[in-house]
Amino acid sequence: MNDIAKLSKFAAIVVILLIGPVMYVVSRAHSLTHAFSRINVGDTPAEVTAILGKPTNGVDQNRGNSDVEYRYSAWPLPKVWVIRFRNGKVVEKTEVSSR
Asked: What is the mean pLDDT of residues 70-96?
């Protein structure tokens, strides 16, 4: 095989290996955005996790005006979807961008 054919094959392999992770991040962000829009004030934690799944960044207790805060993210995107609960109900939901 000549050098151009080897280089083309190597470039194709690199592109294929990069497309998978990029597509995962893009689809994760899209699905979180869509699911986040389905969350309503008054929903319970069980309803939220049924729609969004387990929080990606853990659960914080006693955050400001809420009892519990769930955070979802799609690393490396600089966006976090935050849902705050008080007395077992959603009281606020926000999208936070670090840009």
From this structure: 89
Name the pTM for this structure.
0.72
Please write down the HEC assignment for all residues of the chain.
CCHHHHHHHHHHHHHHHHHHHHHHHHHHHHHHHHHHHCCCCCCCHHHHHHHHCCCCCCEEEEECCEEEEEEEECCCCCEEEEEEEECCEEEEEEEEECC
| 3-41 pLDDT, tens digit each | 888 888 988 898 888 888 888 888 888 888 899 999 999
Q: What is the pLDDT of residue 68?
A: 87
Angle between helices 45-52 and 3-37 (to 10 degrees): 160
